[in-house]
Amino acid sequence: MSAPPRHAATPDSPEDRPAATPTPADAAARAAALRGLLPSLWPFLRPYRGRIALALVFLLLAAGATLVFPLALRELIDQGLVAADPGQRAMALRGHFLWLFAAGAALGLFSALRFYAVTWLGERVSADLRNAVYAHVLRQSPGFFETTRTGEVVSRITTDTTVVQNIVGSSLSMGLRNLIMGLGALALLIATNPWVMGQVLGILVLVVLPAMAFGRRVRKLSRASQDRVADTSAIAAEMLNAIDVVQSHAQEAREARRFAEASEQAFDTARKRTRVRALLVAFIISATFGALLWGLYQGTQAVLAGRISAGHLGQTVVYVILLVSSVAVLAEVWGDLLRAAGATERLMELLAARSPVAEPEAPLALPPRGGPARVSLQGLRFHYPSRPDRAALEDFALEIAPGETVALVGPSGAGKSTVLQLLLRFYEAQQGRILLDGVPIDRLRLAELRGRMALVPQHSVVFSASALDNIRYGRPDAPHEAVIAAARAAHAHEFIEQLPEGYDSFLGERGVRLSGGQRQRIAIARAILQDAPLLLLDEATSALDAESERLVQQALDEAMRDRSTLVIAHRLATVQRADRIVVMEQGRIVEQGRHAELVARGGLYARLAALQFAA
Q1: Which residue has the higher pLDDT, 43 or 215?
Q2: DSSP code of residue 81
Q3: More confident residue, 474 or 318
Q4: Beta strands 391-400 and 564-568: pairing type?
Q5: String of DSSP letters for 527-545
Q6: Best CA proximity match to 140, nearest among 459, 340, 385
Q7: Three-class SS state of 374
Q8: If you placed Cys at 96, which of 4, 13, 76, 294 could pair as Cys (CB 3.0 to 4.6 Å)?
Q9: Could you tell me the residue ranges of all domains in the chain?
Q10: Beta-sheet pairing, 405-409 with 564-568
Q11: CATH match for 38-352 among 1.20.1560.10, 3.40.50.300, 1.10.3720.10, 3.20.20.140
Q12: 177 in helix, strand or coil?
């Protein structure tokens, strides 16, 4: 039973609507997200505490070298330029310029070391975060993907982690450095000009309040912008994975327009975010610059009045420049932090997702492999999460004896594939239980449970790898000889040998270099190589022509002798030799028996057989 289609966000989705005036609840939520930025990232930063400390040391030294520069400049002006004796002035200038060069060289060295340390940290943390999110998503049950688009997940793993990388590896370091320089410059300005800087600080307080309002707006638009980019990724991933369907229906132009519309929505939201952020930066810089110019004007008046020296004024000018530039950089960093808060929030949402199919707290062990598996499905009732009002299985019970081949047949939507999904614990039944060799499967580790099963799905999956790697996907350490034996059993050896590089040939994305029947035989060879005691065949021969189906069926008949097998088939010709045929309708078992018995009864199976064989 297929999951409902996942559509791209529509223009009237909440994120696409014009941003409303922030409510107190919205403001509190955004403030909480920003406060939670560092705690959310701390688990990924903690392993590198030593490097963080080293980067902070280099940062402090670089900021200190910058703050020392104006002091050296003051001494240069007051003692190197004002001295009366030319000889003394020349010697003083030489010494002061050496002092200035030493400060500049220290600044260059410590800045380079800081840059390397924080860039390494940003790359490392973003890689760890990307790996953690991807590994976590891989452990989610299929129910997760009923409501989450894969393109959106890819966007979060790539785009959002890049935003975090920029923050950790660049913006945060720049922000801290400029915060230290700004505070240092401000402290020295206050120490040397307390009355004037007291007035300036009063003006700066008035700058902060509107800046905070701007910041809330920027963060909201940043989150919306990232969501719109994820929409475009989702559309592209969906269409590129179905490119043959798009082209066969001549819908290239329509899909290009749909992608362009989503891109325009992303651009429009990004434009709004950029405009508000630009206004924020302009306001902060202009207001701060005006306030500091007022202080500088007061300083020039003090020089003219003889209250301070020219060197003192030069020092003040440089500190004012440092303070203004620091505030400008901090305004940029503030915008980056707001954007990173949105990106981190989205990533943490993925990491917070918990699969309803979880590993047991006290797992049991299966008996050692000693032959075919025994399976018992008892009183199952199951509703898909996306369809809670419709039962996919109702009071379903089935026993599969060791070595028995059981076929599930019935009309589409009867619940046949659902049985396989519950066996593999892709979902949890709301009622009933499943036993494998006498052990409840919800008490088994997922890897151990699925290691006892080999699945051949209806739609064969071939990865972007070689034929060899595709066949031994379930047994990566399988020897080459075993791979060839499995390929021979699946009648795949002949066409693989004819590929340009044989078993080392790259099969293309989703196996585009192979026919549908060849892809299915690769999947069958993979299952045969896995050599599991329970074989699950979901329309395993549906993509084969008559001759290939006959050959593969012979191989499967041979493979099924040593294992229990559950077969799902719409084509009844493929299940006539099954030990037992179970007929399903609307999630229930309505008939069981051998082919001849069921035909003689004249029930649902007989009607299906009459339709197929008459055709």
Answers
A1: 43
A2: I
A3: 474
A4: unpaired
A5: HHHH--SEEEEESTTTT--
A6: 385
A7: coil
A8: 76
A9: 38-352, 375-614
A10: parallel
A11: 1.20.1560.10
A12: helix
Contacts of 136 (CB under 8 A, 6+ apart): 350, 351, 353
The count of C-alpha atoms lying within 13 angstroms of the C-alpha of 184, restricted to the half-sphere facing its C-beta, is 22
Which pair of tokens denotes residue 607? 């009607």
In terms of Cα–Cα distance, which of 316, 320, 312 is closest to 288? 320
Quote the tokens at residue 156: 């979060």
Is residue 84 over pLDDT 70? no
Residue 69 has pLDDT above 50, yes or no: yes
45 and 125 Cβ atoms separated by less than 8 Å: yes
Residue 419 pLDDT greater than 90, yes or no: yes
Those residues with Cβ within 8 angstroms of residue 196's Cβ, 6 or more apart along the chain or in another chain = 295, 298, 299
Query: Distance between CA atoms of 164 and 339, rounded to whole angstroms?
Result: 9
Cβ contact 146:4 at 8 Å = yes
Are 221 and 273 in contact by the 8 Å Cβ rule? The answer is: yes
Predicted local confidence at residue 432, as pLDDT: 92
Best CA proximity match to 426, nearest among 384, 396, 367? 384
Q: Hey, how many other C-beta atoms are within 10 angstroms of the C-beta on 199?
A: 14
HEC per residue, 442-455: HHECHHHHHHCEEE
| Cβ atoms of residues 301 and 236 within 8 Å | no
pLDDT of residue 20: 40
Identify the sign of the CA torsion 589, 590, 596, 599.
Answer: negative
Q: If you count them, how many residues does the chain have? A: 615
Per DSSP, the three-state class of 457 is coil
Q: Are 166 and 119 in contact (CB under 8 A)?
A: no
384-414, pLDDT tens digit by residue? 887 888 889 999 999 999 989 999 998 888 8
CATH superfamily of 375-614: P-loop containing nucleotide triphosphate hydrolases (3.40.50.300)
Q: Which contacts qualify for 59-62: CB closer than 8 Å, 24 or more apart?
A: 59/110, 59/114, 59/118, 59/173, 59/176, 59/177, 59/180, 60/180, 61/106, 61/110, 62/107, 62/110, 62/111, 62/114, 62/177
DSSP per-residue letters across 232-279: HHHHHHHHHHTHHHHHHTT-HHHHHHHHHHHHHHHHHHHHHHHHHHHH
Alpha-carbon distance values, 135 to 138, 159, 283, 438 (Å)? 5, 17, 43, 31
In the three-class reduction of DSSP (H, G, I as helix; E, B as strand; rest coil), residue 580 is classed as strand
Token representation of residue 344:
């981190």
Burial level of 447, CB count in 10 A (0-12/13-18/19+)? exposed
Confidence of residue 2 (pLDDT cuts 50, 70, 90): very low
